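Researcher: I'm preparing a figure for a lab meeting and need a structural model of a single chain. I don't have an experimental structure, so a prediction will have to do for now. The sequence is pasted below. Please return the structure as C-alpha cells so I can convert it later.
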Amino acid sequence: MSGPSVNALFLGNAAGVNFSLVLSPINEETGKLHHSNCSGSRRAGDWNLNVMPGGDVSKVTISLTRNLQLCLHNATDCCTTPLCVVETLQVLACRGSVMLAHLLIQAEIYANSSVKGNVSENATIIPNQVFQPLGPCPCDLTAGACDVRCCCDQECTTDLKQLFTGSCFTGVFGGDVNPPFDQLCSAKSMEYTPDWFPFLCVQSSLDNTPFLGYFYHGSISTPRDASFKIPLQVSPGRLFTGYRQGDPVMTEENDYFTIPQQSMAGQCVGNAPVAFLQDFDVRCLTHLASYREGLPHDVRVNSGTGDFIQQNVIFGTITDIDKFITRSESPPTTEVACKNVTFAEHYKFIWKGKNIKEINVTVFLGSLCDGEILTQRFTVKFVSLNNTNETESFGNPGYQVGKPLRAANLNASDAFGSLKLWWPALGGLCISSAYTPVLFGLDSLSGCMLEVGVNEDCNLLRGNVTDKLNSLVQATHVGKRSNSSYGNLNDWVEIIRLDPYNSDTNVSAGNLKGICSDIPANLNIRIIFATVGAVQGIPQQEILAVQISYSTVIWQFQCGLTCENVDFLPITASVQFIKVPAQPPIPLTRFQINYTEFDCDRNDVCWPQLFYPLTRFYTGEPYPQCLAKTLAVAFVVLLVAVTSSPWFQKVWE
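Model: Understood. Here is the structure written out cell by cell.
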C-alpha cells in the first residue's frame, strides 16, 4: 500500500470471527514471518483496524493515524524524510484460537509533498499577461508549494523531483497543461462528430494551441450545451439545485440511496435506488442463508441543496411473527440456528419544494431461524412539510402512474371516499380478503370466493354480491387531478353507475334449485383520462370520466367428488384505464376523403414521402450512404435527360 488507508474483503460469515492487527511480523534476520497468534488487538502502533460486517462479505479497513507532513524548522509529529513510513503489517482473522485467514501488507508511504512551507491564504495578484511575457514555468500553478509533475517548479526539492522525474509535463518551458481543442484532428473528443469533420479539422501539435496567451479575468463560465447533445450521465452526480420527481435520492458519498424493491420480473433487488416523490410498498421473501443487510441507517442523505440529513431511526420488536414467517420443509443450510434480522422498514420522507427536510425510519426486528422463510416489508412514503396527511400532490397537479386515485363522497358530511380492489388472502375467501387502493394507469383484476348454499335465495344472492362489489367503490366522485379540492365541485367528475341487473328478476331460472340467473359477479371500472400538459417535463394527466358497470352470470351449484351443501361463487373486479386525446382530432378534409390514394395512412405508396430517405428520420441505412445513392441516381437521371435531348444529338454529330 502507498496511501494512508487500504480496504480488503473477508469472504464468509463474520459472526464470531475476531480480527487483529500485528505490526512488523517479518524477522529481519531470517526474512520469515513471526509466528502470530490470535490474541492481538485492532490497534498496532500508528495503525487502526476497522471491520464492517455485511453478511457473507465483510469490509476490512486498515488506516494510518499519524501525520504525513514533511517536517519544517523545529517541528514535531511529522516526517523527517520523504519516505515517511516503511512497515510490514499482518491482518489475522480467527475464530477462537483457530486462524481462518491472514493478510500480509507492505506499507511504503511518502510524505505529503504539496506544501513546502507556510502558504498564505491571501489571493495572489497576477499581472495582466497580455502586456507581459509568459512565465518561465507554465505548470507552476501554486505559490509556495511544489506542483506534482512540474519539473521546472523552483519550489520542488531534489528529493521531491525524484518521485515524478519520469512523468514530467512535456511541452514548452517544461510544462504544457493546455487541453486539446475540439477542432484538432487527433483529439476526437467531441461527443457528436459531424460527417464533414475529417475534411475541416486542424492538423497541428499542441505547442501551437489557441489557448496560449488566453487568460480569464474573474470567474470562468462553462459553455451550455444543447439538451440533445448532453451525453447520458453514467455515474451519479451530486445535486445542489434540488430534486425533481423521479430523480434518484443521493447519499453523502455521492451514491444512490437504495432500499430493496421489486423488479419487472417480480424478484426483489437489494440495491434499487429510491426515486424522489415516488412511494412504494414491497414484500420480499428471504431465508437465513440468503439474508443480506441493507444500507446502514447512519448513512446521511443529500437534501438536494448540498447539505446532508441524518436519518431518525426508531427500532421496534415484532410480536406477531406469524404474519412474516412461514415454515420450510427443506433441511438446515447454515451453522447458525437463529439470527436477529430486519422484518420491516418504513421510511417517511418529509419534503418541501425540491428538497428533503427530514427522514423518519421505523425498523422492526425479530429472530429468524434456519428452515424459516421471512417475508420482509419495505415501504417509502413522501409527505409534504405543509400537509402531513399524506394526501397532497407531489408538485405536479396531474396524476402519476402508480399513485392512488383521489375519490370523494360529496353527498355525505365526511367527503373522504375510496376506490379499492381485493388483496389476495389465505384461501381466497371474500370474508378474509384485505383491500388495496386503485392505482392510476395500472389495469388491474382482482377477485375472491363467496360461499353460496344449495338452497340460496336468488334475490338474496344478487343483493349480497352487489353489496360486496359496491363495498369497493365508497365514493360518488373521482378527482380530476391528484390535488383536487373537496370544496370545489369543478375539480371532480361524477361516477356514472349502470344498474347491475333488472330488479324485476326475482325467480330462479326454471324454478330449479341451485340455479340463479343475472348474478352481477363482475364489477367493471372504466376510467377515461388524457394528457393535458406537462410540469417540469413530466406529463400532467387528468381524469375525464369514470363509469361503473356490472357483468352478470348464471350461477349453478357444482357438486364435486363429495357433494356438500356449500359451493363457491367467484366474483371479480377489474379496472381499465382508457387514454383519449386531450383535444378532438382534426376532421378529414374533402380532399383527404375523396383522394384516398394520397393518404399515407391508408396506402402503401405515399407520394408526399417521396424524399423521406433524404431526411434524418430515415434510419434504414447510414445517412452518408443514403445521400451518396441519391446523388448517384440523380446524376444518372440527369445524364439520361441530357443525352436524350435533340440539341445534344446535334452537338454530338
